[in-house]
Amino acid sequence: MPTHKMKVEIWSDVMCPFCYIGKRKFETALAQMPDSAAIEVTWKSFQLQPDLVTDTTKNTITHLAESKGWTMDYTRQAIGHVMQMAEGVGLHYNFDKAVVANSFDAHRLSHYATAMGKGNEMEEELFKAYFVDGKNTADHATLMALAVHVGLDEQAVKAVLQSDKYAAEVRQDIYEASQVGVSGVPFFVFNNKYAVSGAQDSKVFLEVLQKAYAEWESANPTAVIEVKEGAVCTPKGECK
Question: Model pTM greater than 0.85?
Answer without folding.
Answer: yes
